[in-house]
Design brief:
This protein is 62% helix and 2% strand. The chain has helices at residues 2-20, 25-47, 68-93, 100-124, 144-165, 172-196, 216-223; strands at 63-64, 231-232. Residues 1-38 and 40-53 have low confidence and may be disordered.
Length: 238
């Protein structure tokens, strides 16, 4: 029995050490899949504490994000769906309007957002909301300025969303993961701003040197111009 406990402790220490080691971008997809599987177990435990008796009624036609940490992760998942879908369109339709280095940036952004989307979907498991229907008809995918302006909107919105929702998470592990994702989203926002106007990468920061934070209701209202699926956030933590 003692040997089994010693081996278990060694595995736990090894896991913690491996999570602390930086990983290369090419390895991140494999890492995300494994970590998401572990996160699903943590999430299943945390979701048992949700009190469904306090759930507010929602429009039957709307996709309800849920409550507690489940709802916040679904909220993040909805936004990552939007961003991943946008960059997928950009890579499919618009690479010709960018130079070679810009094309690589667009492809990297598509890859990152797709990883974020798939990571959250795996973490949520059966609690994940369905795929959302998006509408990009207002975007001219043949116009570089239209694409970059929209990208700036999405990236700034994503950063503000994570900053605003982070304090609503109860599970410290989820907060850590959200912090890792928002740090990447902030890099996205910076590079998009620099593509629009060189040297403006930090213009979104306020006088205190911080990026803005927005609450879910305001973020979803801003994103609704591009999301056809009706979303209910009535049961998210306040």
């Amino acid at each position: 029995m003692e040997k089994l406990q010693d081996k278990s402790a060694e595995k736990d220490t090894s896991l913690k050490s491996s999570l602390a080691v930086p990983i290369q971008r090419r390895m991140f997809m494999r890492y995300a899949g494994a970590t998401a599987a572990a996160t699903t177990l943590l999430f299943a435990t945390a979701s048992c504490d949700d009190d469904d008796d306090d759930m507010l009624p929602t429009d039957p036609a709307a996709v309800d994000l849920g409550s507690g940490d489940t709802g916040i992760l679904n909220y993040a998942y909805a936004l990552e769906q939007l961003e991943a879908a946008f960059y997928t369109e950009v890579v499919a339709k618009s690479l010709g309007v960018f130079n070679q280095s810009e094309q690589q940036i667009m492809q990297d952004l598509k890859g990152h957002e797709s990883i974020h989307r798939d990571f959250l979907k795996a973490a949520l498991g059966s609690a994940a909301i369905p795929n959302l229907e998006v509408d990009f008809s207002s975007i001219n995918f043949n116009d570089k300025n239209s694409i970059l302006t929209t990208a700036r909107t999405f990236e700034d919105l994503g950063v503000a969303a994570y900053n605003g929702a982070g304090r609503l998470l109860e599970n410290a592990g989820f907060l850590t993961l959200a912090g890792k994702i928002v740090s990447v989203e902030a890099r996205h926002a910076a590079v998009i701003r620099d593509l629009i106007s060189n040297g403006t990468f930090s213009d979104s920061a306020n006088d205190q040197g911080l990026d803005p934070a927005m609450m879910p209701a305001d973020v979803l209202a801003a994103a609704s111009a591009f999301i056809v699926t009706e979303i209910s956030a009535n049961n998210l933590p306040k």
